[in-house]
Specification:
Helix content: over 70%
Number of strands: 0
Oligomer: single chain
Distance between the termini: 10 Å
Largest sheet: none
Strand content: under 5%
Number of domains: 1
Structural class: mainly alpha
Number of helices: 14
Length: about 375
């Protein structure tokens, strides 16, 4: 085992031991908030009891439910175009693995996106990808995801703002506020990646921060990120130059598939509201998933969609059932499906490791 590996192990152990009580409390608070918003807030806003919602959902014909599942699966497949454009040698099966398992982890904890990225990092490294390839993949795929949501808001915001509804006007203002914040963060990230000067400066700051952390675990190692950042910048420019069209098609297709799934979920539940209201609700849905206050925006997304659709004249029972159908597929379903997928990946990886160790001299280094 190398000195760097030992340092990494010691660092990981130290960070786990030093996890503050405040961090654990904030994480638990996010989960409690999501449960409260869903369990108490949603029935309070809609005036519909959970028992009535369950009966409405079970009354939806099975063939329509199957159609919703097909839309969900198609959306996942379209999204793999973005992931494959971010890492050109990635196969569709592995891209789907990264998508499902990362979402499963992200959907069970506040700020779970970081945990999903960490899991994707582990998988990609186990498949033989270098750190620079993983970094490029992570940056490009996430930048295109945020960019797609911002473009969506830019396209639909004028329509929503001019709809003549006071509630939709508030929705437009909220969406604009969230979009501006996301655009600022995205702009800083792109500037750091595009500009060698800014990238080098950020790398220097990261070196100082990591050096201090290493000192906490008794290591004298001084990491150097500047050369890696310059190499990653060059690699990322090449990936974007070759794959921007595919990534753009993928993120556009994925957004359209998600909107189709929301519209279809509301339709089969019997919701009848103007199309502009559904568009406004969908824009909020996409932006609320960026915040990370609750796992996958749970609670916030449901309440946001419900508020818009009820103000547009939607039937409370149908609105509640439609929202839960949509979120079951785009949020809840990803947890067990991704969890099983992750368990199978771990099992296959363990079996491969045992087979390699059983070979003559297989464990030699």
């Amino acid at each position: 085992m190398t000195a760097l590996s030992l340092d990494a192990d010691r660092l990981a152990g130290s960070l786990r031991r030093r996890a503050t009580r405040g961090q654990r409390v904030r994480s638990l608070a996010g989960i409690v908030l999501a449960v409260a918003l869903l369990g108490i807030g949603l029935p309070a806003v809609t005036g519909v009891a959970w028992s009535a919602t369950g009966q409405a959902i079970t009354a939806v014909p099975l063939r329509w439910l199957a159609g919703l599942v097909v839309l969900w699966v198609l959306g996942l497949l379209v999204n793999t175009l973005v992931l494959r454009a971010s890492l050109p040698t990635l196969t569709s099966r592995r891209a789907l693995t990264l998508s499902l398992t990362g979402s499963a982890v992200a959907n069970v904890m506040p700020l779970g996106g970081a945990a999903g990225i960490a899991l994707n990092y582990r998988m990609l490294r186990s498949w033989g990808y270098s750190r620079s390839h993983v970094a490029t993949y992570t940056l490009v795929s996430n930048i295109w995801d945020v960019l797609g949501k911002l473009v969506l808001v830019a396209v639909v915001l004028p329509w929503v703002a001019l709809a003549g509804s006071a509630v939709l006007g508030h929705v437009a203002a909220t969406a604009l506020f969230l979009a501006v914040g996301a655009a600022v963060v995205l702009g800083l990230a792109v500037a750091a990646l595009a500009s060698p000067a800014i990238g080098t400066r950020l790398a220097t700051l990261a070196e100082r921060a990591v050096t201090r952390v290493f000192r906490l675990v008794g290591s004298s190692r001084r990491p150097s990120f500047r050369e890696q950042v310059v190499a990653a910048q060059q690699q990322m420019r090449g990936v974007v130059r070759r794959g921007w069209a595919q990534a753009s098609v993928g993120v556009t297709g994925y957004i359209l598939m998600l909107f189709a799934l929301l519209w279809a979920s509301l339709h089969v539940a019997g919701v009848s509201v103007p199309l502009v209201a559904i568009v406004a609700a969908f824009a909020l849905d996409r932006l609320f998933t960026l915040g990370g206050i609750t796992p996958g925006g749970a609670g916030l997304v449901e309440l946001g969609i419900a508020t818009v659709l009820l103000a547009a004249g939607g039937d409370p029972l149908a609105v509640t059932a439609g929202i839960l159908l949509y979120r079951t597929l785009t949020f809840a379903m990803e947890i067990p499906v991704g969890g099983v997928w992750l368990a199978l990946w771990e099992w296959r990886r363990g079996r491969s490791s045992r087979a390699l160790a059983a070979q003559p001299h297989g464990g030699a280094r």
